[in-house]
Amino acid sequence: MKKILLILPLILTIVVMAQPMGKMDLINKAKKEVGEMTPKKLKSLLDEAEDVIVLDVRESEQRSEGSIPYDDMTKEYFFTVTRGNLEWEINKMITDKDALIVTYCRRGGRGALAANVLRKMGYKNATTLKGGLKGWAKAGYPIQTGLGTTILKVNKAK
Hints:
Layout (H helix, E strand, L loop, with lengths): L1 H17 L4 H12 L1 E2 L1 H9 L5 E4 L21 E3 L5 H8 L6 E5 L4 H12 L4 E5 L2 H7 L4 E3 L2 E3 L8
Parallel strand pairs: 1-5, 2-3, 2-4, 4-5
Antiparallel strand pairs: 6-7
């Protein structure tokens, strides 16, 4: 009986680990592994002209929603590649495996998965933007659109 009680937790662990992971499980695991940079921290790095690469991994049609703005002085640090093409394109785009790379998407899920893949490909300092572009906008930071740069205001219900 004692042997069964000792083996039971091991069997339960194996059974739980054998369950397939869902989308949110993969995203949460990726976020935990790569960490998340707050919009405030990224904005500070950009304002201070620190060496940071910003990588938009959204689909091309989603980019029409806007993006984190850059200017002529910083555009060389901003890249776009769809999450589906990341593994094929990134080595041509970013050769410095030690660079600080912050990925983002619309809400943060694909950005986290992209940063996780980058880490597995040897990019030691890849992380993701917490909340994605929506988190950036909710923090009150500007969004570059085809109409120019804008700041989205959140109406707080009383």
